[in-house]
């Protein structure tokens, strides 16, 4: 089975070196047969940086037009050009590392034949000392699922697409979401809506390394607002949701924030109590703003980490 791993990057040499080191540690077998791997690096910049050495063949291209969906689409274009073609095209981020068994777990799940897209856990790695509110709210963690669960979305921090999905010209990240983030959420929700099967692969684990600059309440609240606003935009764009429907979802987040604050207080987690309310309120405000067409927060206009 052949895999191509796509990485988009912009001026993160340390993160890229850390990722390449983890790719070199991959066990390139599914337990029965060897796996072929190639790496595609799309540098979202107008200048080329040296790449770390790697045991895997690597394609290195520039995408000078700034914007995450543009770089992701360039990665898809490069994946389509690989000869012989890869059976699966995976995405990971340049601030991540992969577990040594990541590739084998994806191959094992792919061999079952019941998925067009596979996604798995992206475990947060937080710099010490970790603020109490971050640990108690678990706001840097993503949802987990039983292995094989069919999902309605995925993210490019840990996802693999069957070649047949990538070969479809309609498989494109939406450049209307140039700097807001969420173009991966939009694409995978659209693919799921159109009948492509997204399944959870619990053993295919990546690790997301957060820089110190993101370990602030301000960043976490801005992120929650952006997620809410982008979700409203996606709901309106893909699912024929009404503005009132988005506002209804926002009200449920407000109610959830109150409940979580009460539960945190009862557990003695004072740092989490107010933060739970604030995070859900920020997401609710984002949903309302997105529903009303107010400008979305451009999270990726600011560069974080190296």
Descriptive account of the structure:
The protein contains 9 helices and 11 strands. The protein is an alpha/beta fold. It has 2 domains: 2-210, Alpha-Beta Complex (Spore Coat Polysaccharide Biosynthesis Protein SpsA, Chain A); 217-301. Strands 3-2-1-4-9-6-10-8 form an 8-stranded mixed sheet, sandwiched between helices. The longest helix has 24 residues, at 243-266. The model has no long low-confidence stretch (mean pLDDT 92).
Write a compact overview of the structure shown.
The chain is 41% helix and 16% strand.
CATH C-level class of the largest domain is Alpha Beta
Principal-axis shape: globular
The percent of residues in helical segments reads 40-55%
Question: How many domains is the backbone divided into?
Answer: 2
In percent, how much strand structure appears in the residues? 15-25%
CATH architecture of the largest domain: Alpha-Beta Complex
Sheet/helix structural class: alpha/beta
Gyration radius (Cα, Å) is 19 Å
């Amino acid at each position: 089975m052949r895999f191509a791993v796509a990485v988009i990057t912009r001026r993160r040499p340390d993160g890229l070196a850390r990722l390449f080191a983890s790719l070199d540690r991959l066990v390139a077998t599914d337990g029965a047969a060897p796996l072929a791997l190639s790496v595609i690096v799309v540098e979202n910049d107008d200048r080329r940086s040296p790449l770390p050495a790697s045991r895997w063949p690597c394609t290195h291209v520039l995408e000078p037009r700034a914007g995450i969906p543009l770089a992701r689409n360039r990665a898809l274009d490069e994946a389509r050009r690989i000869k012989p073609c890869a059976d699966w095209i995976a995405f990971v981020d340049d601030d991540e590392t992969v577990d040594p068994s990541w590739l084998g777990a994806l191959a094992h799940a792919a061999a079952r034949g019941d998925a067009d897209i596979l996604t798995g856990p992206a475990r947060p790695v937080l710099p010490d000392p970790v603020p109490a509110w971050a640990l108690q709210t678990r706001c840097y963690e993503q949802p987990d699922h039983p292995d094989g669960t069919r999902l309605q979305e995925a993210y490019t921090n840990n996802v693999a697409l069957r070649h047949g999905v990538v070969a479809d010209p309609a498989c494109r990240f939406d450049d209307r979401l140039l700097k807001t983030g969420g173009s991966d959420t939009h694409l995978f929700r659209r693919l799921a809506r159109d009948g492509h099967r997204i399944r959870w692969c619990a053993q295919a684990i990546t690790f997301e390394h957060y820089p110190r600059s993101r370990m602030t309440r301000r960043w976490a609240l801005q992120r929650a607002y952006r997620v809410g606003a982008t979700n409203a935009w996606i709901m309106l764009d893909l699912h024929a949701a009404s503005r009132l429907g988005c506002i209804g979802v926002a009200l449920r987040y407000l109610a959830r924030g109150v409940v979580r604050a009460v539960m945190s207080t009862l557990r003695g987690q004072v740092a989490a109590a107010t933060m739970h309310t604030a995070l859900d309120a920020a997401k609710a405000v984002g949903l309302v703003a997105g529903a009303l067409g107010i400008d979305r927060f451009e999270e990726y206009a600011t560069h974080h980490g190296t």
